[in-house]
Design brief:
Chain A: It is a multi-pass membrane protein. The complex is a heterodimer. Helix content of chain A is 73%, strand content 0%. By secondary structure, chain A is an all-alpha fold. The relative contact order of chain A is 0.14. Chain B is built from twelve helices and twelve strands. Classes of the chains: A mainly alpha, B alpha/beta.
Chain lengths: 310, 348
C-alpha cells in the first residue's frame, strides 16, 4: 500500500511537470502581452517593465526560470492584482470557493444518494418518477438560472437569506444550493441505476432469505455495493465544484477563485494562470488518488497490494 | 409421519408487458419431517417459483393468486412480511443456485455466515462468529478461523457453494430448500455437495426440498420425487416408484432421455419433441398433450386429475383412467418396470 502511494506521488509530480510545460508554452502562444492595454507606455518604459518581469529573455530561459521557481514552491508574482505573490493571491481567493464547493458537494452527494436509493427501492412508482424528475431538473437547470431564482424567492421576496453577500454561514446557503443541484442530480441518477441493478442481484435475494428486514437488506447489503461507481464520479466533480464557478460567484458577490481565473486569462496574467492551472491539476490528481484508495475500502475485490491474503 | 409443510392448490401469476403469465397453476405437495423431497422438471416448469412462493421471495411483479402454504398448520401466505422475516433463515432457509453471485462481494464470509444468527437469536457478535466458524468447518472449508475475514472473491466456486450452504444451515432450520445447488458446479464438486447435504441432514435432522433438473442427482439424494411440467405437478411418488414404475408419459420422456450404462456410444439420446406451452395462455387440457404421442382426445379437453397408483404414488394422466386404452410405454421404460418388479413392486 505504502509502495503504491509512493509510486502514485511520483506520477503526481511527473504529471504536474507535463501540465506545467504544456500550459507554459500554450500560454506563450496567446496573442498580446500582459501590458498590451497600457498604450500610454513608451517603448522605453515597456522595455524596463518587461525586463523587470523577465519577459525580455527567450521563452526557453523563461521556462527554465519558472520551473526553478516552481521547485521551490514559488509560483511567481502576479502582473496584475497589486503584484501580489500568486500563492498568496490563490490562498485568499480559494477559501470562499472551497467552502461553498465543499458544502455543495456534501449536500449534493448526501441528498443525491438518498434520492437515488429511494427511487431504486420504489422503482416504477410515483416516488421514482418524482425523484427522476428532480434529478433531471438538477442536471439540466443552469446554475445561473437556479441562482437567480433562489435570489428572487428566498432573498428578495421572503427575505430568509441575504441576496449577495460574503460574511457568515447564512450568506453561503444560497450559493451552496445553487452549486449543489448538479452533483445532486448526477449522483442521484448514478445511484438509482446502480441500486436497481444491485437490488435485483442474487446476493440481495439471499440477504432477504436470511430473514433481514427490507430496511436492513438495503442498509447492510445494497447501499455499500451501489456506492462503488458513485465514488468514481464524485471525485472529479468535487474538484470542478470546489475550484469555483465564476457565474455563481459573480451572482452572489463571492470573492472566490473562479472569477480570478477568468480575469487573469483576459489580462494575460501569466503567473496567475500558470499557478491556478497547476493548483487545479494538483487538486484533481490528489482527488483521483483518494478515490482510488476509497475504492479499496469500499470494494475488497480491488483492494491493493497485500490487502488480500491469498 | 408428520407433515411439516403442506402446499395446497398454489397459483402464482406474473404480470408482464405481454400479459399475465400463469407460472404455477395449482400445485399440491407436502413435506414430511426428516425427508428429502426432490422436485424435478425442465427449465421454466416453475420449480423455483414454487419454492420461492413458500418463502414469499418472489419478484415484485409476481402474485400468489390462490392457495395455502401450511407450515405446522399455519398458513404462511396470511403472514405479513415482518412475520415472514422471522421464519426466513430461521425455520425455513434456502440454498441458492449460483454460488458466484449469491454472496455479498463486500462483506467478509464470517459476517455473512453469522448474520442469520444475529437476526434471529439474541447472541453476541462474538458468539455468532464463533458459531459461524464451526459451521464453516462443518461444511468443509479448510482452516475456517483464518478464512473468516476473507471475501467471497477469495474462494473457489465449490467453496462458495459450501459457504452458501453454511449460511442456510447456520441457524439449524427445520426446512432447507435447495434450489439447484449443484447446477453451477462441475461433476466432482457436485457429488461432494450432495454428500455434504446428506451428511448435514443426518446431523441436524432437517427436511430438504431439493430442486433439480438432473435426474441422476435425484436418485442420489431424494426419498420422494415430484415431477413438474408447465406449472403443475404431473407425477409424484417415492424414488423407486417414479424411477422404476413411472406412469405419466412426461416422466417416461424424461427418464428415457437419460443415458444409461447400456446406451451405446453412437446412439442418439432420446428427447421429447416440441417445446413447453406458453403460460400466457395455458392450454385448457393436459399441458403436455401436444408433445405427447400417447395423448388421448380427452387430453385436449380436460386436465387429468391425479390417479392413485399406490399409497404414495400418484400421476395426473388420463391413461390411468379405467376406460383408457392400453398403451405400451417406450422400451426403456419397460426395462424399468422389470427392475421395479425385481425390487418387489407391482408394476403395471
Amino acid at each position: 500500500m505504502t509502495k503504491y502511494i509512493l509510486r502514485r506521488i511520483f506520477y503526481l509530480f511527473l504529471t504536474l511537470f507535463i501540465i506545467a510545460t504544456i500550459t507554459f508554452f500554450l500560454m506563450k502562444m496567446l496573442p498580446g502581452t500582459p501590458f498590451s492595454n497600457q498604450n500610454r507606455m513608451s517603448a522605453e518604459q515597456l522595455k524596463i517593465v518587461k525586463a523587470q518581469y523577465g519577459l525580455d529573455q527567450s521563452v526557453f530561459v523563461q521556462y527554465v526560470r519558472y520551473l526553478g521557481g516552481l521547485l521551490q514552491g514559488n509560483l511567481g508574482t502576479s502582473f496584475q492584482f497589486n503584484n501580489e505573490p500568486v500563492t498568496l493571491l490563490i490562498g485568499q481567493r480559494l477559501a470562499p470557493s472551497m467552502q461553498i464547493g465543499a458544502q455543495a458537494m456534501i449536500v449534493g452527494t448526501i441528498f443525491g444518494i438518498l434520492l437515488g436509493a429511494v427511487a431504486a427501492i420504489r422503482k416504477n412508482t410515483w416516488v421514482d418518477t418524482l425523484a427522476t424528475f428532480v434529478s433531471i431538473l438538477g442536471l439540466s437547470i443552469p446554475s445561473f438560472v437556479l441562482a437567480v431564482l433562489l435570489q428572487f424567492y428566498l432573498a428578495y421576496k421572503w427575505k430568509i437569506y441575504p441576496v449577495a453577500l460574503w460574511d457568515n454561514f447564512q450568506s453561503s446557503v444560497l450559493p451552496t444550493i445553487a452549486l449543489a443541484a448538479l452533483p445532486l442530480g448526477t449522483v442521484a441518477r448514478f445511484m438509482r441505476t446502480e441500486m436497481v441493478d444491485v437490488l435485483s442481484s442474487d446476493y440481495i435475494e439471499l440477504a432477504k432469505s436470511k430473514g433481514n428486514s427490507n430496511w436492513k437488506v438495503v442498509t447492510k447489503h445494497a447501499l455499500r455495493n451501489s456506492l462503488i461507481p458513485v465514488v468514481t464520479i464524485i471525485g472529479p466533480m468535487a474538484v470542478s465544484v470546489m475550484t469555483g464557478s465564476m457565474v455563481v460567484e459573480n451572482i452572489f458577490s463571492i470573492p472566490g477563485i473562479g472569477e480570478q481565473f477568468v480575469k487573469s486569462i483576459t489580462t494575460n496574467d501569466y503567473p496567475t494562470i500558470m499557478g491556478l492551472t497547476i493548483f487545479y491539476s494538483f487538486l484533481l490528481i490528489i482527488v483521483y488518488l483518494i478515490v482510488d484508495i476509497l475504492y479499496g475500502l469500499i470494494d475488497p475485490r480491488i483492494r491493493l497490494g497485500n490487502g488480500g491474503k491469498e | 409421519m408428520e407433515k411439516i409443510l403442506e402446499v395446497k392448490d398454489l397459483h402464482v401469476d406474473f404480470d408482464t408487458y405481454n400479459g399475465t403469465v400463469h407460472a404455477i397453476r395449482g400445485v399440491d405437495f407436502h413435506l414430511n419431517a426428516g425427508e428429502t423431497l426432490a422436485i424435478v422438471g425442465e427449465s421454466g416448469s416453475g420449480k423455483s417459483v414454487t419454492v420461492r412462493a413458500v418463502l414469499q421471495l418472489l419478484a415484485s411483479n409476481a402474485k400468489i393468486s390462490k392457495g395455502e402454504v401450511l407450515y405446522h398448520g399455519d398458513d404462511l401466505l396470511q403472514k405479513s412480511d415482518q412475520d415472514m422475516d422471522k421464519i426466513r433463515g430461521n425455520k425455513i432457509s434456502m440454498i441458492f443456485q449460483d454460488p458466484m453471485t449469491s454472496l455479498d462481494p463486500t462483506m467478509t464470509i464470517g459476517k455473512q455466515v453469522a448474520e442469520p444468527l444475529l437476526i434471529h437469536n439474541n447472541v453476541s457478535q462474538k458468539d455468532a462468529l464463533q458459531r459461524a466458524e464451526e459451521v464453516l468447518r462443518l461444511v468443509g472449508i479448510p482452516n475456517p478461523k483464518a478464512r473468516m475475514n476473507d471475501y467471497p472473491h477469495q474462494f473457489s466456486g465449490g467453496q462458495r457453494q459450501r459457504i452458501v450452504i453454511a449460511i442456510a444451515i447456520v441457524d439449524y432450520p427445520e426446512i432447507l430448500i435447495a434450489d439447484e445447488p449443484t447446477t453451477a458446479l462441475d461433476v466432482t464438486v457436485q457429488a461432494q455437495i450432495i454428500d455434504l447435504l446428506k451428511e448435514l441432514q443426518q446431523k441436524i435432522g432437517t427436511s430438504i426440498i431439493f430442486i433439480t433438473h438432473d435426474l441422476g442427482v435425484v436418485a442420489g439424494i431424494a426419498d420422494r420425487v415430484a415431477v413438474m411440467y408447465a406449472g403443475r405437478f404431473v407425477e409424484y411418488g417415492t424414488v423407486n416408484e417414479v424411477f422404476y414404475n413411472p406412469q405419466h408419459p412426461y416422466t417416461w420422456g424424461l427418464l428415457d432421455s437419460m443415458p444409461t450404462l447400456d446406451t451405446s456410444e453412437s446412439a442418439r439420446l432420446n428427447s421429447i419433441p416440441g417445446t413447453p406451452p406458453n403460460l400466457l395462455n395455458p392450454p385448457k387440457g393436459d399441458a403436455f398433450a401436444p408433445r405427447n404421442k400417447y395423448a388421448l382426445e380427452i387430453d385436449e379437453e380436460e386436465q387429468p386429475p391425479f390417479f392413485k397408483v399406490s399409497k404414495t404414488h400418484y400421476a395426473a394422466t388420463w391413461l390411468l383412467h379405467p376406460d383408457a386404452p392400453k398403451v405400451t410405454p417406450p422400451a426403456g421404460i419397460l426395462k424399468r418396470f422389470e427392475k421395479f418388479q425385481k425390487l418387489g413392486g407391482n408394476a403395471k
